[in-house]
């Protein structure tokens, strides 16, 4: 009888909290990965080149970065519940702005707002998951991110299908209407978030790890570097693969979107299955092996051309566990400084992603122009994209290399996780 008061709060909040996390990652995956089929049509409608696409993605990453920089502190003041509601609401409203964007400048601002919501949601879900998943952390983190992979698998095909829908009168829904519909789905997870009692941070101010102490930890910087390279691989393939296949190999929008869905199908399966492996062989070994797999298969797929495109799917399987495993690593290493650790890590990662988006767009454009003068426009475009995707693969290998360095560092101190 004495244990009932202690167990009742757990029974009260955990089920709805799970819905918030799982539905949150579902809509997060949709919002992140419907851009693949939309980007080629954006380029046609607004008359922008690959460098401008890179600039657009970089500007959006800045929105994500700004949100990440304040969301941890914001959630500490107003609570994770209100933070989650604001994140979902911001993303839903951005869909309205995107739908009514009449030019590239207005669209860029609208897309920026969407990424503000994305950044808030990223931090909110990471903090919430870390507070709830205190047992079997590696598996549960991968399971929650499985829902991101699930929606990411469906996102390209859903986006391509919605863009082709025709209203009465012959007008297509188009990519702007598609964004409006998909982002309106963010209203759904607001329902369990509103009615749930989400867990609060029970760490006292005295117990919390200061940001300065976190930044002085050499391991923290290795974690940031590893996560950054891993996320570059994931987001870059998601953002550029459809464009690459359509414009270099003349694939149809449906076929290219299908290939991206296969990438995310393997990504989803990886997060579902590899969580068990992560808990068995350890966080660091998992990151070393699977990020190397992602890097090697991305490079091989690029070098083999159309016959090796299927290897991008294997890259999805490899890169899948990196992000949730790093989050699990942070949760285990910094239990009293979780909010600060996640905020700083994701914020610095966001800076790296901004730079990589700009660099990748510039790299593709540079090699496209260079090879165009030598081999013609068609071959120039293909070589430009190939240079970009080799860079993506190298980032996967660097993720593995820095993981090996960190593993050796932790092993010397008997701190391997």
> What proportion of the residues form beta strands (DSSP E)?
under 5%
The oligomeric state of the chains shown is single chain
Average pLDDT, all residues = 83
User: In angstroms, what is the radius of gyration?
Assistant: 21 Å
| Major sheet characteristics | none
Helix-strand category: mainly alpha
Number of helices: 16
First-residue to last-residue Cα separation? 38 Å
Shape type: globular
Please mark out the parts with pLDDT under 50 across 5 or more consecutive residues, or reply none. Answer: 1-14
Helix content percent band: over 70%
Q: Would you give an account of this structure?
A:
- This protein is mostly helical and about 425 residues long.
- It contains 16 helices and no strands.
- Helix 2 (about 35-45) packs across helix 6, helix 6 packs antiparallel against helix 14 (about 320-335) and helix 11 (about 255-280) packs parallel to helix 13.
- The protein has helices at about 5-35, 35-45, 50-80, 80-100, 105-130, 135-165, 175-185, 190-195, 210-215, 220-250, 255-280, 285-305, 310-320, 320-335, 340-375, 375-410.
- About 85% of the residues lie in helices and about 0% in strands.
């Amino acid at each position: 009888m004495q244990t009932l008061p202690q167990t009742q709060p757990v029974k009260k909040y955990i089920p709805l909290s799970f819905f918030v996390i799982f539905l949150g990652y579902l809509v997060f995956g949709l919002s992140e990965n419907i851009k693949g089929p939309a980007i080629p049509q954006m380029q046609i409608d607004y008359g922008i080149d690959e460098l401008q696409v890179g600039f657009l993605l970089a500007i959006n990453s800045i929105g994500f970065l700004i949100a990440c920089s304040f969301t941890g502190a914001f959630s500490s003041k107003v609570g994770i519940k209100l933070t989650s509601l604001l994140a979902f609401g911001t993303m839903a409203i951005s869909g309205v702005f995107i739908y009514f964007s009449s030019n590239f400048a207005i669209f860029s601002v609208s897309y920026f707002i969407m990424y503000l919501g994305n950044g808030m949601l990223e931090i909110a879900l990471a903090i919430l998951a870390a507070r709830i998943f205190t047992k079997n952390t590696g598996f549960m983190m991968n399971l929650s991110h499985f829902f991101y992979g699930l929606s990411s698998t469906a996102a390209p095909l859903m986006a391509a299908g919605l863009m082709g829908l025709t209203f009465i009168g012959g007008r297509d829904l188009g990519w702007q209407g598609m964004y409006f519909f998909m982002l309106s789905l963010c209203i759904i997870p607001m329902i369990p978030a509103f009615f749930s009692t989400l867990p609060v941070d029970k760490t006292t101010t005295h117990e919390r790890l200061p940001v300065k102490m976190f930044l002085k930890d050499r391991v923290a910087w290795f974690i940031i570097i590893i996560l950054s390279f891993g996320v570059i691989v994931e987001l870059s393939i998601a953002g550029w693969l459809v464009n690459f296949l359509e414009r270099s190999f003349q694939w149809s929008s449906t076929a290219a979107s299908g290939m991206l869905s296969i990438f995310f199908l393997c990504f989803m399966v990886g997060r579902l299955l590899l969580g068990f492996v992560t808990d068995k062989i350890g966080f660091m070994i998992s990151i070393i092996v699977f990020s190397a797999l992602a890097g090697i298969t991305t490079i091989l797929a690029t070098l083999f051309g159309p016959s090796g495109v299927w290897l991008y799917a294997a890259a999805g399987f490899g890169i899948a566990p990196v992000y949730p495993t790093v989050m699990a690593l942070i949760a285990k290493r910094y239990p009293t400084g979780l909010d600060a650790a996640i905020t700083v890590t994701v914020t610095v990662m966001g800076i790296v992603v901004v730079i990589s988006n700009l660099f990748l767009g510039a790299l593709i454009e540079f090699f496209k122009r260079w090879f165009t003068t030598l081999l013609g426009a068609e071959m120039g475009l293909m070589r430009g994209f190939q240079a970009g995707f080799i860079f993506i693969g190298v980032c996967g290998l660097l993720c593995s290399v820095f993981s090996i360095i960190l593993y050796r560092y932790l092993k010397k101190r008997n701190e391997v996780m």
